[in-house]
Design a protein that fits this description.
By secondary structure, the chain is α/β, with parallel strands linked by helices. The protein contains 14 helices and 11 strands. It has 2 domains: 6-244, TIM Barrel (Alpha-Beta Barrel); 262-348, no CATH class. The strands form 2 sheets. It has an 8-stranded parallel barrel with strand order 1-2-3-4-5-6-7-8, surrounded by 6 helices. A two-stranded parallel sheet has the order 10-11. 42% of the residues lie in helices and 14% in strands. α8 (183-193) links the parallel β7 (172-176) and β8 (197-201). α8 (183-193) packs across α9 (213-222).
């Protein structure tokens, strides 16, 4: 088993599903191509008339189709070499001829084909093993285990992917969905169990959503200790993609939110100054963010002292206590935190 993970992007496909303008799609593709992802999945139905649009990124595109030899040929005619065939399987029934024809056609055209069993999480391991026997050793670049109904939790994901490894030699991809907020946790469980390809989307965008790329990246690096290539300014790059998609980013969004390295309470500030790892899972510069102090109703004398010292101001304990009282009154009046310059103004204007 390799120590690296391949990230399979669903963000661009979501952009196509939303029918974003062509210029927006090109910008998205460019930004995504700069992230540590392997391929970008896109729907053939929506991309087939936009061949020239994404020509520069063709090597990173994988086109999603139904189980149809005709669609396989159409994808090939457009110049794409990677394809996903979507398929639902009914246990106890033979594979439909259309799937076998599509697989044969893709092999004939020497295409890189992945098979997405969209209802995999509704089937038992034995039922999937029987399905593989029906495939008869078809040449697949990967087998996609899809939890399209968000049925799994991290524990069952781990056991399931372990079981899958025993019944197939195909490289495994895991597609988790986020109906119950478990997509990222399930993705990490799949990685721990041996899946080397994980479907993700920036900030988990989509309905019902995917595992968040940035969350899986950082968790794989710092929790699972896996080889993970991080790009410079990850947070800003993700923010740019979401801006193109007209998506807002919550200030407390894990990994990329503006305020995840903001510290307000005196205890937090004291701890951060002693050892940042007490409250921070990873250094802010890893994702291109910066640590900053927030002066609010939970701030203490230590917070104020540090804010002032960073601006070259040193005050004694009695002045500091008076300033703290005034700061709390001002925060209550404004119903928001104060900037360092506002704190400095209170101090310099004799507001204590």
């Amino acid at each position: 088993m390799s120590n690296s993970i391949q990230y399979i992007d669903q963000t661009l496909g979501e952009g196509f599903a939303r029918r974003l303008p062509q210029a927006a799609l090109v910008i998205m593709a460019q930004l995504l191509s700069e992230l540590p992802i392997t391929v970008m999945d896109v729907p053939f139905e929506q991309i087939k008339e936009k061949t020239d649009l994404l020509d520069p990124f063709q090597h990173m595109l994988r086109v999603r189709i139904n189980s149809s030899a005709k669609e396989v040929a159409a994808v090939h005619d457009k110049g794409w070499t990677k394809v996903i065939i979507d398929y639902y399987h009914r246990p106890g029934q033979a594979i439909i001829p259309h799937l076998q024809e599509a697989l044969n056609k893709s092999q004939q055209l020497a295409m890189d084909v992945s098979l997405n069993l969209k209802n995999a999480s509704t089937l038992s391991i034995d039922e999937i093993a029987a399905f593989f026997k029906q495939l008869g050793g078809a040449a697949l670049a990967s087998f996609i285990y899809s939890d399209s109904g968000s049925r799994l939790d991290p524990f069952t994901t781990y056991e399931t992917i372990l079981g899958m490894q025993k019944c197939t030699a195909y490289p495994l991809e895991f597609y988790g969905y986020n109906r119950y907020g478990l997509a990222t946790a399930n993705a990490l469980s799949a990685v721990r169990a041996g899946a080397e390809r994980i479907a993700t989307a920036v900030a988990g965008v989509g309905a019902p959503g995917h595992a968040a790329l940035e969350e899986v990246l950082l968790s794989a690096k710092y929790l699972l200790k896996r080889d993970t290539a991080l790009v410079t300014g990850l947070a800003n790059r993700c923010a740019a993609i979401l801006t193109v998609m007209e998506e807002d980013i919550a200030v407390d969004k894990a990994v990329i939110g503006d305020n995840i390295f903001a510290h307000e309470s005196g205890l937090h500030v004291y701890g951060i100054k002693k050892n940042p790892q007490i409250y921070e899972a990873f250094p802010p510069e890893v994702v291109g963010l910066a640590r900053h102090l927030v002066v609010g109703k939970h701030s203490g004398a230590t917070s104020l002292q540090i804010v002032l010292q960073e601006q070259g101001i040193h005050v004694n304990a009695s002045v500091l206590q008076g300033l703290l009282k005034k700061v709390r009154q001002t925060v209550t009046t404004y119903k928001r935190s104060l900037s360092p310059s506002e704190v400095l103004n209170l101090c310099q204007c004799g507001g204590v």
